């Protein structure tokens, strides 16, 4: 089942790959192990800043040593080390994407495009997050989260639009 | 915290930690869960890797890790004591 380790980020594999391979080899193969490794891969992609370096060169004690503080820092985008420029880019991209969706709604001029356009607006907010909250995450994680959100919203919009058209 | 407790009596590599935690807490951690936690503890400076032995990397508690564990256990003990007292008075 060590093939599942290929799903982990390259840097992560370089650091822990040999060790975890050894542990996986001595672990009984089971569905539980499969799910555990899969979950670990998602976790490693979503928290790339967590391994092999300390944030801001601070020790755990100087940061207060509490998980809650770290989580709040992460929620505020602080852990991702975003700059004012990142904020401006994220804002511009969000506004630009919103205008594109609005234009599609106006050009389409039907109940179907209007409904899809309205449901796509939350997705527009996600586009800008790659310069803010998703900064530092792998390309795979960014694509999965942003494209995934658009797909889900598109399907909801399509179903709602078809219901309205009927 | 289970990993910190496991390393409290000396350095251990991944498989030894899994076995120790299973004996101490009755929980069998999967390799994905274990190494996710190890990476976080290492990045927070609570544990550190020692020189590799074959393909295994032993880990040990750092000074910050030991202080963090003591603090967590102190809080946990206080919570347990309060719970016991309230149950006794119920």
Strands in their spatial order, largest beta sheet of chain B: 1-2
Q: Write the element-wise H/E pattern of chain B from the N-terminal end onward.
A: HHHEEH
Q: What is the oligomer described by this structure?
A: heterodimer
Overall pLDDT score of chain B = 89
Residues in helices of chain A, as a percent range:
55-70%
Major beta sheet summary of chain A: none
Which radius of gyration of chain A do the C-alpha atoms yield?
21 Å
The biggest chain-chain interface is: A-B, 35 and 27 residues
Radius of gyration of chain B over alpha carbons?
A: 15 Å
Strand residues, percent of chain B: 5-15%
Number of helices of chain B: 4
Shape of chain B: elongated
SS strand fraction of chain A: under 5%
Helix tally of chain A equals 6
Shape of chain A: elongated
Describe the overall structure.
The complex is a heterodimer of chains A (166) and B (90). Chain A has helices spanning 10-25, 31-46, 67-75, 84-108, 111-127, 139-165. By secondary structure, chain A is mostly helical. In chain A, helix 4 packs antiparallel against helix 5 (111-127) and helix 5 (111-127) runs antiparallel to helix 6. By secondary structure, chain B is mostly helical. The mean pLDDT of chain B is 89. The chains are: A mainly alpha (166), B mainly alpha (90). Chain A binds chain B through residues 12, 15-16, 18-24, 26-27, 32-33, 36-41, 43-44, 47, 49-55, 59-61, 65, 70, and chain B through 13-15, 18, 30-36, 38-40, 42-46, 55-57, 64-65, 67-68, 71.
């Amino acid at each position: 089942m060590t093939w599942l380790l290929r799903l982990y980020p390259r840097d992560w594999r370089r650091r822990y790959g040999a060790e975890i391979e050894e542990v996986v080899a001595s672990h009984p193969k089971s569905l539980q192990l499969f799910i555990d490794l899969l979950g670990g891969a998602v976790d490693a992609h979503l928290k790339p800043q967590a391994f092999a370096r300390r944030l801001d060169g601070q020790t755990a004690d100087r940061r207060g040593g509490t998980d809650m503080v770290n989580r709040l820092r992460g929620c505020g985008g602080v852990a991702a080390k975003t700059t004012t420029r990142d904020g401006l880019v994220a804002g511009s991209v969000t506004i630009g994407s919103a205008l594109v969706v609005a234009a599609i709604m106006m050009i389409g001029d039907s109940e179907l495009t209007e409904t899809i356009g309205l449901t796509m607006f939350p997705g527009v907010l996600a586009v800008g997050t790659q310069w803010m909250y998703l900064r530092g995450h792998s390309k795979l994680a960014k694509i999965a989260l942003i494209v995934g959100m658009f797909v889900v919203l598109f399907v909801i919009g399509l179903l709602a639009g078809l219901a309205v058209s009927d | 915290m289970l990993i910190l407790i496991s390393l409290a009596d000396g350095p251990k590599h991944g498989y030894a930690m899994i076995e120790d935690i299973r004996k101490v807490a009755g929980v069998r951690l999967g390799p994905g869960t274990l190494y996710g936690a190890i990476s976080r503890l290492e990045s927070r400076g609570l544990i550190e890797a020692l020189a590799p032995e074959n393909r295994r990397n032993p880990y040990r508690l750092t000074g910050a890790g030991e202080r963090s564990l003591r603090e967590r256990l102190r809080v946990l003990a206080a919570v347990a004591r309060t719970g016991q007292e309230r149950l006794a008075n119920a």
